[in-house]
Write a structure and sequence with these properties.
Length: 177
């Protein structure tokens, strides 16, 4: 019985890898030809392969982990006009229980120094990611010059920044589907 179980596991893993490699090759060819590959394209492709939802989700996360980019070909920019926050989405990456939403966060400039004529300003344009855990909070992992974080740039509006992160992730997920 132990041998049969090992054989089944090997067979399932092998089939998964073969399917994953096949889909990755096909998707990369489509991206090279058309310039993009949307979530709608993905679901049509897995439906044509007669994969169930669980298998389609597993394959999707594996493809993202391999660096396959899913987008509709349009630039995804999320904006909060009230607080002057903008997130320009670049790519999605899955690693274990974490999902990374990479891009550039535009926020208020950071000004420091003494008197007004002696102050220096660092532009509020920082590259990084929103880190989303399967069962947990969203963490902002953006670092600018002088080890300044997104919270340093948004001093006094930390709560709004956290709310914006949740909003941005939700909007990106809607646009990728």
């Amino acid at each position: 019985m132990k041998w049969i179980k090992l054989y089944e596991e090997f067979t399932n893993d092998s089939m998964h890898d073969m399917l994953l490699n096949s889909l990755e090759t096909e998707i990369r060819e489509i991206i090279a030809k058309e310039g993009h590959f949307s979530m709608d394209d993905y679901y049509a492709l897995v439906k044509s392969r007669k994969l169930d939802d669980r298998m389609a989700d597993d394959i999707f996360h594996d493809l993202v982990g391999r660096g396959v980019s899913f987008s509709n070909g349009e630039e995804i920019v999320i904006e909060d006009e009230d607080f002057g926050l903008i997130f320009k989405f670049e790519k999605l990456q899955k690693q274990g229980e974490e999902t990374y939403y990479w891009g550039t966060l535009y926020c208020p400039d950071y000004t420091y120094g003494g008197e007004e004529d002696e102050q220096e300003t660092i532009p509020g344009e920082i590259y990084g990611r929103f880190v989303v855990f399967d069962e947990g909070p969203i963490i902002l992992d953006f670092e600018g010059p002088n080890d300044l974080t997104a919270y340093d740039f948004c001093e006094g509006m930390e709560h709004e920044l956290d709310n914006f992160a949740e909003y941005a992730v939700d909007e990106i997920n809607k646009k990728l589907k």
